[in-house]
């Protein structure tokens, strides 16, 4: 009987039900039971551990809400990222959900950046606006099966940037900390000068070059000492001073760009002059349109589009103005694919300096906070411009501009591999991915730490030994990275 039962239950593939005889033959051994129990215990502990960590970290973070916020809804972000696809504008179809128009938000003709494509007219408007690729959300609309996900497209861009990063950059004469005070003074004075120039232009008065020229000189000298100080300070703008500080910023960036391309002093000065005066035509745009707290209508945008020609006409009346500032003023909104204005110039017809001005103009505009739009971080803006460079800008100039300001420009907030948050204070001479960072926050412990300078080009034990994981938006952590540009 025992043997029969043994044979019956020991047959291969035979399931032993509860209550059947000879259970001992199919029951797990004490060792097996122990292992199974251990596995279940580990699984349970892991679950509770994750739950506890999440609960605990959220609880901890809530005490720091003045300074830091938890990463927002990472489970949703992970799911959404797979659904976001980057497609060519020629692949657009009704029923697709636009997640990002992937363009300079100031110039696109839609009230919102995210919407369901409901008419052929919307598709036509996207293509006419010179938008060549868009990001769609396949969870909320039609999909394009073989299109790369947004994450894949971003990874490709990062890989390409790594190649660009291995290039010599501008050598500075003083540290950012030393230059900041002087740069703050220049920023203030230059904004006041541009405000006065635009007031004069509105009254029909000529621009007095003998007042503008010394300011271009001061800006150039600050760039020569340390370009990071003035460039990072000029990223801070309010709605009231945006128009004036944008002009100062374009001047500063153009001077730094010319210098990094080893252009001669006279061309650099003329480019700086063009940068400072490039938006003078906006003096004739009514304030209700220029400072409208919302997207522009087609009619209002048509008025804005007149500012390059109006500025050109104003500058023409200025004695001793050269051809470079005139060209920059008239053509800084032209695009390589002919989608710009006022002359719809295309590749081969836009001058070198007007192309450079177009890059710095867009870079500064999309990094600025406006009353109805949050500015991108400098690092994110550079990546966007790099992506657009296939159609709108000269790709070689864009790469040179990235070498000029850095893949992670001074003032950019970054997350390090160690979990520390920091702000970039100085680019490395030959590796743009290894700048000097002032670290100030430990995200693993969610505490501020004693600020210290970490040189990413150095090994562990020699003031380095860390690596940038990604750039971070200061708004996400509710910190002002500018406060940490200088270690006390
Ligand atoms: Fe402009």
Secondary structure layout plus pairing:
Layout: H1 2-10, H2 23-26, H3 30-62, H4 74-83, E1 84-88, E2 97-100, E3 115-116, H5 120-128, E4 133-137, H6 150-165, H7 176-202, H8 209-225, H9 227-233, H10 242-260, H11 265-277, H12 287-290, H13 298-304, H14 307-316, H15 323-331, H16 352-367, H17 378-388, H18 395-405, E5 413-416, E6 420-426, E7 436-442, E8 447-455, E9 468-471, H19 474-477
Antiparallel strand pairs: 1-4, 2-3, 2-4, 5-6, 5-9, 6-7, 7-8
Helix pairs in contact: 7-8, 7-9, 7-10, 8-9, 8-10, 8-11, 10-11, 10-16, 10-18, 11-15, 14-15, 15-16, 16-17
Bound molecules: fe (ii) ion.
The site of fe (ii) ion (FE2) has 4 residues, from loops.
Task: Give keywords.
single chain; 488 residues; alpha+beta; Hypothetical protein af1432; 4 domains; five-stranded antiparallel β-sheet; four-stranded antiparallel β-sheet; 9 strands; binds fe (ii) ion
Structural notes for this entry:
With 488 residues, the chain is of the alpha+beta class. It has 4 domains: 2-76, no CATH class; 81-164, no CATH class; 176-405, Hypothetical protein af1432; 413-484, no CATH class. Helix content is 48%, strand content 10%. The chain has 19 helices and 9 strands. The strands form 2 sheets. The chain has a 5-stranded antiparallel sheet, with no helix packed on it. A 4-stranded antiparallel sheet has the order 1-4-2-3. Helix 7 (176-202) crosses helix 10 (242-260), helix 10 (242-260) crosses helix 16 and helix 10 (242-260) crosses helix 18. Residues 1-31 and 45-79 have low confidence and may be disordered. Bound molecules: fe (ii) ion.
